[in-house]
Amino acid sequence: MTNSNTIFKSIKPIAAIATLALIGCTCACGPADSKAADPDVARSYDVSKVQKDDEIAKLVPESVAKTGELTVGVNVSYAPAEFFAADGKTPVGYEIDFSKALAKLMGLKAKIMHAQFDSIIPAIGSKYNVGISGFTVNAERMKSVDFVTYANAGLSFEVRKGNPTKVDPKNLCGKKVTLETGTVGEPIMEEAKKQCAANNDKPLEIMSFKDQTDATTALLSGRADVMYADTPVAGYAAIKNSGKLEILESSNDAEPMGAAVKKGDAKMLKLIKAAIDKLMKNGVYKDILKKWGVENVAIKKSQVNPEV
């Protein structure tokens, strides 16, 4: 039998605890205003500060300009990038703020359209102008869409406090792993599952959910032993469920995340690139990340379809 410690050699773990400094409600919040009383809504970046950029607005395709909206495909269940506030209706998160700011530069209003994560990319160009939903850039996705990068993020293993089921990221055979369907971590776990079987080891069970919130709940309830998610997502889950969850290990290699547009749509690609570059230049980009305590995902320069 092959040494099971070699099964996960493609995953480079380091001991790390993700710390996300969340900023509380600092405005005068009264009980009469439920949105103002919600710290996640209060934490959101004030996009009214973002002014229309005439040069960028000229790049907006006529068909989009006529609608007055930038339609953004988002799976609103991936906190702190995008999730629903306490009212269950208001999308919040750093990618929500980012999408709204991009639209403001264009002289448009962002129309946030919630969808299952794995259904977004196939509908970009028909249903959505752009997809901004924690998409890790990879070769498979670039067959269908073009990307403009705006962040770097790695992956983390998260367990219940104290690691009660003795999860070892180097050998997950015999464990139940929870994750969101269609995320970059899914094929990594599928490969690990095959290797467990090839080595006649205990089976690795993958619990794949359409929404990240359900994946987190599976871990919290004890149905799963470990969760595999983007490090900002795992870190936020640990904070929101203080004392119940902890990050076990994080990958050492951060990968680019990008806004996705229809493959070959040069006009939309140029528009999104120009708007992202502007937000990086004027400081709004970093201000948004700081609001949500995820400055560690920041990049210095955006790229179109980077080598991965």
Automatic annotation (TrEMBL):
Protein name: ABC transporter, substrate-binding protein, family 3
Pfam families hit by this protein: SBP_bac_3
Alphabetized UniProt keyword annotations: Signal
Solute-binding protein family 3/N-terminal domain residues: 69-296
Residues in the signal sequence: 1-28
Keyword rRNA processing: no
SUPFAM superfamilies for this protein: Periplasmic binding protein-like II (SSF53850)
Provenance organism: Gardnerella vaginalis
Keyword Signal: yes
Coiled-coil positions: none
InterPro entries: Solute-binding_3/MltF_N
